[in-house]
Amino acid sequence: MASFKRTTIYLLLAVLLMGTTTAAASTESQSQEQDNTEIVSIREWQGIPAEGMNEHWAKRLFQWGIAQNVIHGYGYPNQSLKPDQVVTEAEFLKMLYRAMGIALPNASNAYVSSISWTDDLYHMAGYFNHPTVGDNNFSMRLQPITKLSAAEIISASQGVHYTGSDAITYLIGHGIANSEASSSEQFDGDSTFSRAEALQWIRQLALRDKLVMHERPVAPTDRSLLPALPNTPFAVITDFSTEPVTQEDFNLFGSGDLPIVRFGDMKRTVDEQLGDSEGKDIFNFDTYPLLSAHFNTNGRLDAWSIDSDTNATSSITPSLRTNKGIVLGESTLSDIIHQYGSAGVNVSNREVVKFYYEKADDGTYRDISIYDPIQNIEKVYMIVFFVDLETKVVYHVTASSFKNALSVF
């Protein structure tokens, strides 16, 4: 079982990395050593362009939205993103439903002169009984949506039937209003909002793990089930926050203060600590009772991974954890966000949370956006968490060099 689950996780990582590689449009060139005996592969990571947004506050939001297939630009070939343009109801539905993983075939033609691309959106809204003004009024589909209408759609997607101020109360009480308002009056439901603000709202839903589609009940939901409004408003989670890391954060710890393995350890050191490996898996990782480890051509550890099944099969069962205290089988998504930040959360696969770091010449690390160009991938490292969608508990952790991840997966 452990081997099967580990293989499944690695295959999922492979799909995720290939998807990122495709989206980021990496290029590869080759150069030969002077003796012509070794081919050296050099990659330049191109990132996700956000045309015309270099100085805009929502640049990373749009890079994320493009990479996650949530939003696209207007027209070809320039693909203008128009972040400050007021968002329409149809655009908001398209962004929300795509973020929730709903396939919308006609929505790919969203920004041509025709408006037929909206049909699938409104068929979907009708199927899930989500309230829209454009369902029976075709001309309203491309008119600006108000914050109140958006609140009613979002609350409906959560499986409740509230309207007006009740829908706003529901969102505020659950911390998914993308606002610091503590009342429906402060929320200002009659106002419109921009495409950038709409994308930020969807990002907030992702950070609260609320991007799951539900059908709205036909009958109104009992108002007594509305959450009590807080005395102080919910804090809006920073869209892409990060916390500092050091070399220690790439080591793996057990119940004690000393790491079980250190990133960069020689294989013989790991064998002395854990015993001889039980063999290699299909991804060339050495398997040990507590973990799987990959060693580079110099014999140094450049990736390790742990999962709940691996830990359960060991006669020694320490509480495997990261340096920041994320404990396998115990910590949750909210713990990850608290300890590492919100930057790693995505919507294309809600199960996986990924962080990327670049190592400087002085040995320090800085968070980097995978959506920006990377000049030297050999200096980039990643920490990946897998979270159970039902319990929100961490069941797998991987630390790896980015170069290894690309070559192995």
Automatic annotation (TrEMBL):
It comes from the Bacteria. Residues 1-25 form the signal peptide. InterPro entries: SLH_dom. The keyword Signal applies. Residues 45-110 form the SLH domain. Keywords: Signal. This is SLH domain-containing protein.
